Amino acid sequence: MNSRRKFLQNTALGGMLAGSSDFWIRQAAQFDRPEKNAFPVVIATWGPNLKANEAAWEVLSNGGRALDAVEAGVKVPEANPRDSSVGYGGFPDREGHVTLDACIMDEFGNAGSVSFLENIKHPISVARRVMEKTPHVMLSGEGALQFALSEGFPKEELLTDKARQAWEEWKIESNYKPKINVERHDTIGMVAIDAQQRIAGACTTSGLAFKMRGRVGDSPVIGAGMFVDNEVGGAAATGLGELVLRTLGSFLVVEEMRRGAHPQKAVEKAIRRIVQKYPKEVEENQVGFIALDKKGRHGAFGIHKGFNYVLYQRNENRVYEAGNVLG
Ligand code: GLY
Question: Which atom of ligand 1 is nearest to the CA of 238?
Fold first, then answer.
């Protein structure tokens, strides 16, 4: 029996997962000096998103609102044709269509979301318009597109040559198998706290490469892909959306923090919940969470090795490796 299977079996038998939580809290605690310049702060999933953090910081360091910061931040990978899991350049579904999911939340608990949206480069900005200009939280598919067009967003082809080529190659075997930590990026989730301690979050993705047409993941679902409560903090998810949807992971992280957990403990709890409930599926699939609490403390954790995140705090923007359960 390999050690991972043995580990999972122990877990299924009710033992606590053997993550070295205190180590990761110590890592997170290196930056936990909320009494000293903790704000503003922004955290995002995946190392390549340093530039997304920079765009958010530009807003935050000029006294701007966290909501504007997270929108500006996640628009960076949305516009990047080299990012194959977000926005323009995202890999398509199995029929060759790039379909996008995104959500956003502000300090008042307002939320907006779009799912299964095509031909709009910045789904996060459409999600914000849904939040600010409609009586609804979520618009989907054709309705979301019509709303975006009515708001003046241009209709654009989002399938790049690189993504089309990847799809043509995938079609040869048509074997649907999400990969762990593809190119060490995936969905971007971002949480920010501004100088006035207003918290906001955003999440945006093209979803799983070569998914079924119509598949929607966790990223546009408030509480799954992202959740913010201004009294507590915020969290966001990346990785296999089906695992996050079934556990409402970001909501769970925030509720753990509400009960007093350090953000690092909270994200570990959410990952362990997934591992305990879905021991077979986690063997081949990754999920990662990031979190910030109201004090400006942070946490990050994944199922597998390889999940990293970017934190911009006290004028320093850096990539950090997250802890993990399964190695
Ligand atoms: N977490 C992104 C997705 O599964 O679509």
Answer: 1
Condensed to tens digits (0 to 9), the pLDDT of residues 74-126 reads 999 999 999 999 999 999 999 999 999 999 999 999 999 999 999 999 999 99
* 33 Cα–ligand 1 center, Å: 33
> Is position 134 annotated as part of the catalytic site?
no
Q: What angle do CA 145, 147, 153 make, to 5 degrees?
A: 75
pLDDT at residue 14 is higher than 80? no
Hey, what's the torsion of the CAs at 66, 67, 70, 74, to 10 degrees? -170
Q: Which of 45, 187, 204, 238 is catalytic?
A: 187
Domain assignment present for 28 = no
Rounded to the nearest 5°, which phi and psi values hold at 257? -65, -35
Q: Specify the number of domains making up the chain.
A: 1
Q: What CA–CA distance (Å, rounded) separates 275 from 11?
A: 8
Write the pLDDT tens digit of every residue in 190-218: 999 999 999 999 999 999 999 999 999 99
Q: How many angstroms does the Cα of residue 239 sit away from the middle of ligand 1? A: 6
Residue 255 alpha carbon to ligand 1 centre in Å: 22
Looking up residue 266, the CATH number of its domain turns out to be 3.60.20.30
The whole-number pLDDT of residue 176 equals 76
CA distance 198 to 272: 29
Ligand 1 mutation pick, 113, 115, 244, 286, max ligand atoms within 8 A of CB: 244
Range of the domain at 177: 35-324
Cβ < 6 A, ligand 1 pocket = 187, 205, 207-208, 217-219, 238-241
Residue 303 falls within a domain, yes or no?
Answer: yes
1: in domain: no
Which residues neighbour 315 within 8 Å (Cβ) at sequence distance 6 or greater?
none
